[in-house]
Design a protein that fits this description.
Elements lengths: L2 E2 L3 H14 L6 H7 L3 H8 L4 E2 H10 L19 E3 L14 H13 L4 E5 L6 H12 L5 E6 L6 H16 L7 H14 L2 E6 L19 H12 L5 E6 L4 H6 L6 E5 L8 H6 L8 H7 L4 H14 L4 H5 L8 H11 L4 H13 L5 H7 L5 H13 L4 E2 L5 E2 L2 H18 L1
Parallel strand pairs: 3-5, 4-7, 4-8, 5-6, 6-7
Antiparallel strand pairs: 1-2, 9-10
Helix pairs in contact: 2-4, 5-6, 7-8, 15-19, 16-19
Length: 418
Amino acid sequence: MNTIRASTKGLETIDRLRQQKGWNRQSQAWCQEAFTTVATLRRFWQRDPIQQDTFIRICHAVNVERWEEVVEGAIPASAVQLVRSDGMPDVSIFYGRPDELAKLTQWITTDRCRLIALLGMGGIGKSTLAVRLAEQLAPQFELVTWRSLRYTPSLEKLLSELTQLLCERTDLAQSDTIEEQISSLIEGLQRHRVLLVLDGWETVLSSGDFAGHYREGYKSYGEMLQRVGQEGHKSCLLLTSREKTPEISLLEGQTAPVRSLNLTGLGEVAQEIFRSEGLADEEQWSRLIQIYRGNPLVLQVIATFVRELFGGSVTEFLRQGGTLITGDLNYFLRQLFERLSSLEMQVMQQLAHTQEPMLLQQLREALPDISNQDLLGALQSLWWRSLIERSATGAFTLQPIIAEYTIHYLKWLRDKEE
């Protein structure tokens, strides 16, 4: 668990707010409000490190608006520049993710990771989580900047924008070659504490090939990633991607300055989506979450569908049987499947038709025309795309919506050819 302590100036702010509440420094009322103990409050005032979640509750109890600004090492809000760009999601509606936020916060603020990949299937909430994280950690940085890769800018263009942004602070020279531009970027990351978020890394990766292969003309993105992960600096590059990259796989480790986090579904907190849509049959909501694996985008689409076509009745929707795929989901899933290689599709087809988890040996026997090396490569690629799951026995399987759509997609391809 991440531990933090208040700065001297931060304690002055908290002390002033504490007096406004009429509490002393070890008030029982404060303990009750913050769900903590007198001993922990005493450690807080002694500036001993305490668990982050407890620290936050202590601050919120006296109405500290931004707890991040009273933490030791925080940069004054007036000195922080949060540079937004087109495509930065709105996070006014945000569900759960306390564990993920805590882990990422520890990696960035305590472990000082230089490179972090936030991975997961489309719609799982990577970008939303990245925005919330960036906003929360802004006081820890001199500059927080967000760049969307949705329109696949060339690395030259991206680096030019970033170095110009840093040049306002460092007088770095504008460079001509890619190598020099990357060097200038890293020099800026060395001189200043910067949080750089690159959203949608999969757009610079190729379709029709195994995961992690770069599009023609975009291989230099991988070179930048490798150098940012390997070379020393005091900043952090956070990328979001539907696919893992080989640079992350080679450099990451539990104690290394390069890490990755695979984002999974929301779990029961996803019920808030159904509640906001006014769905009925609350006892069935958990089943719906399980079927669609807690994917917030998918659940939002399904919730709207249930409200519009079934009057909000989840029971009536589930009576239709199977895993229903609406028109909106069809478009969303087709984008995922169009990126797959032919070998990956063969594996997906086998898993979908078997409808049972399959061990590696069973897959080898069912797909004798695929070499062992190609089969392992296809499985790793599907895992990097978050499209397959593994059971407790080590068998491979597909989540229901992916299995259902695999059959649908293959039928659509056949009909298209006829």
